[in-house]
Amino acid sequence: MKIGSIIGRIRENFAGDAGSKGEFAPPTLGGGMRFPYGPFRFKTELPKGVPYEIQAASDLQRWFTIAEDVARGPGIEYVDSEASKYSHRFYRVVANEVHSANIIGYASTTLPPGFSMIANPFDDTNNTIAELIKGWPDGTTFNRFDTRLFRLSDNAVKYGKWTNPGEKLLPSEGGIFFNPTSDYKSLNFVGDVMQGNLSVPIPAGFSMRSPLLPHPGQLDEDLGFPIGEGDVIHLFDRDQQTYVLYPFAGGKWTRGAPVINMCESFWVAKTEAANWTRAILVNEG
């Protein structure tokens, strides 16, 4: 008998005991870790005997089942050995036809020698710099922009530790990172995809921001940024180590629309304050 038929029968038998999917507590995903050699691991818990599917997506829209099984105990650990093929990937679990309460994922970016503008696309229990950026040598620096004091923060690795380890980098924020080595090095971010009706204020004047949606795309059309007349977006070219300006004038981009990559932040010079809003409901369907 095929495994699909077996799981189908177990699901039928289980349904009588567990009740409808509305009575089934959605599983929560946690313990995410991206290993240096590529795989991604996460954990969840399910009652014994519950059939479940693990689904993955790279765009938060087209979900594919990558594993199917029956819970043999409360603790479930899944390792995606295919993760090395993707620079970013998202995961959810469907158990007894109920989606997991959260979506977990990872995103990797390559930082060249010198400066980069970086962003953390995920929410996690601890979004401090000490937890997000580990194992970097002395001379590494990270700077966030304080819109109230109109200045950059000062954080650096000295004697193997960050001088301000509790400083946070949250989704929608950004920072300037300096790689003091002569090597291209990978930086991984792991955590939950934010969901719901989200909003982040974009003040008039200069600020540093990153997308609410953890996905690359054109800033206004794909990512919903509230661009306005006279605004200027400043992207940092990591390879050339220079800023590239994208003015918006006469109702259009004067040099083409900027495209924001995963884990990338940018400067915005805004003529009038606005709210960057997004409705992210990716756990449906």
Describe this structure as you would to a colleague.
This protein has two helices and 25 strands. It has 285 residues and is mainly beta. Strand 20 (232-237) and strand 21 (242-249) form a beta hairpin. The chain is globular.
Q: What sort of overall outline do the alpha carbons produce when their principal axes are compared?
A: globular
Structural class category: mainly beta
Largest sheet: 6 strands, antiparallel
Runs with pLDDT <50, length 5+? 1-22
Helical content stands at under 10%
Rounded mean pLDDT score: 89
Strand content: 35-45%
- If you compute it from the alpha carbons, what radius of gyration comes out, rounded to the nearest whole angstrom? 21 Å
Question: How many separate helices?
Answer: 2
Q: How are helices and strands ordered from N to C?
A: HEEEEEEEEEHEEEEEEEEEEEEEEEE
Count of the domains: 2
Secondary structure tally: strands: 25
The termini sit apart by 29 Å
In summary, what is this structure?
By secondary structure, the protein is mostly beta strands. It has 2 domains: 100 residues, Immunoglobulin-like (Sandwich), CATH 2.60.40; 171 residues, no CATH class. The chain has 2 helices and 25 strands.
